[in-house]
Amino acid sequence: MKKWALPLSLAAGVLALSGCNGDGNVIATSKAGDVTDMELYAEMKEKFGPQMEQALQELMQKKVLSEKYEVTDKELEKEMKTAKEQLGDQYEMFLAQYSLDEDGFKEFLKLELLREKAALADVKITDDEVKKYYDTWQPEINVSHILVEDEAKAKEVQQKLADGGDFAKLAKEYSTDPGSAENGGSLGWIDNAGRAQFVPEFTKALGTLKVNEVSKPVKSDYGYHIIKITEQKEKGSFKDMKDQMTNELKKSKIDSDTLQTKLDKEMKAADVKVTDEDLKGAFETEDDAKSKEAK
């Protein structure tokens, strides 16, 4: 299951100020004096230095990568749909947490897709690798669980379920997992890669369950889980799924270091230069830092 994590981004503010020059434009007035966009820009740099660098990186990466890679409206809408499905009822809360509207979140996803396309451009895989990946690939499942602190409580819940108790109601009553309890224990749709993001005991149990089957209490470091798969999507033929399998396998070969190396390469090829002295380090690579230290 993909984890959507957004930094504190000031990209919108930087965009608004990017055209400033000279003394700047007046953006607020008072009897005590005016405030210009350049003054605000300077204040933002003073208070949010690292975030300003990150915002600059985001803006420049979007410009540079958009020249070389394309994100279609169809791809963006698909990514939005996936995000909404995975966030479920928490979608609106997620937007509020990061002070985003839907258009702002869509812009973030577009940059993520551009970065992904850039990183995948250099990944090569064979048909044999794709076939082996398909053979072990498991379709998406909709998972719910009830987490309790001890085995006695787990057996109590298990008995109530055996007696016909409603899983969602019991999750709200007993589960100590605040992220899912309010949603009736639902963890949402879990894809093939997402299975491995759970603790090993949980992942192993998922591989043994059928749809609507409830697990025995599964012990982990968090307590005892009672797990249920409520839905499962169909697995298509290799022919129908080959493109999807190829893309997923390529993604699995990309880690944060590989992505950063590719982004550094793209920025260098675009001859990115920062003229603002306070933001000079925004595109500094590890090699640049080591070179400075050596001097």
TrEMBL record:
Record flagged with keyword Isomerase: yes
EC number: 5.2.1.8
Catalytic activity of the protein: [protein]-peptidylproline (omega=180) = [protein]-peptidylproline (omega=0)
Enzyme's top EC category: isomerase
A GO cellular component entry from the record: plasma membrane
GO biological process: protein folding
Keywords for this protein: Cell membrane, Isomerase, Lipoprotein, Membrane, Palmitate, Rotamase, Signal
One Pfam family hit: Rotamase_3
DNA damage found in the keyword field: no
Cellular location(s): Cell membrane
Highest taxon above the source species: Bacteria
Residues annotated as domain PpiC: 138-231
GO molecular function: peptidyl-prolyl cis-trans isomerase activity
Membrane topology note: Lipid-anchor
UniProt similarity note: Belongs to the PrsA family.
Function noted in UniProt: Plays a major role in protein secretion by helping the post-translocational extracellular folding of several secreted proteins.
PANTHER family: FOLDASE PROTEIN PRSA, PEPTIDYLPROLYL ISOMERASE
Name listed for the protein in its UniProt record: Foldase protein PrsA
Organism (species): Domibacillus aminovorans
Source species taxonomy: Bacteria, Bacillati, Bacillota, Bacilli, Bacillales
Gene behind the chain: prsA
